[in-house]
């Protein structure tokens, strides 16, 4: 379906202007001393790709597939043929959200990925096949599609196994919700049995804010992958795609499910990682307990790289992309580590880090070289519709 309308997104509500203004102001107050102090510290080792834009540049591989600008570009492995898919959110044909609005989600693919970072990601074709990039799901924007009014459906993660591709998404009702509300309509899982050409929705949806369940912990998911123990591990949290959900609290929960049960849409078969009667345990008799809490968290990503579980997320409070690791999904996670900052002059934990103003996202590439050399896909939006940048960038060599 082709959409020519654009989502109603106030210029200061969708992305990280929330913290950008505060971060820049605070950084400006120490500009006289911070750069010199930062220079005295050890420099960060150069990255193979240290912020290479993958779209929003005329003549790049994305524009060659009909996508001028877009965000997220969530990477996943297309196991049926060994290629790679990248799922974008709201996308346009022109630079800086100009030209025709393509919709959300949109997918570009790559035949080979260079995990060393020697060559940047280059897109080889668009989905659905047979033409340029266009919206994957069949629904109308700024309309009621049978569930209530929705502006757009934003992908949170994608995975392929057993011949079926899955995208977990959030249907957004309000991009700039009042304080304490998440602005979502619902969350769902769509699947494709032809590797991304056509899509169907599972009939079960997780109710969101405007359906009466504000702050649902099933708003945003990340598929950590199928572990050698045979379980599919899934992390989830409250929807905070606008980065304005003041009740977010940074809480993340964990559940697991057998892949066949997931394929059948039997989501009630999940086991929950919960703190019950004084101990952590897998159970079906209690809801998942938050495994992490703290700062407000936007987009997040968890992937098993080698034998290590790696987590990346946009810390809205800290205005940075941070990472953690754990030997198992249900083990204790390391303390957060700052990787990429919106402002590297303040605070001191940001000094010397790669800087990307107006950043968000931070998705782990499942084809990363190792658990100590991750590839992250980070988004950037300057808050002004029709102006650059509105894009994703590649960072390699990230040691979480």
UniProtKB/TrEMBL annotation:
Residues 58-395 form the DUF4185 domain. It holds the Pfam family DUF4185. InterPro entries: DUF4185 (IPR025442), TAT_signal (IPR006311). This is DUF4185 domain-containing protein. It comes from Streptantibioticus rubrisoli.
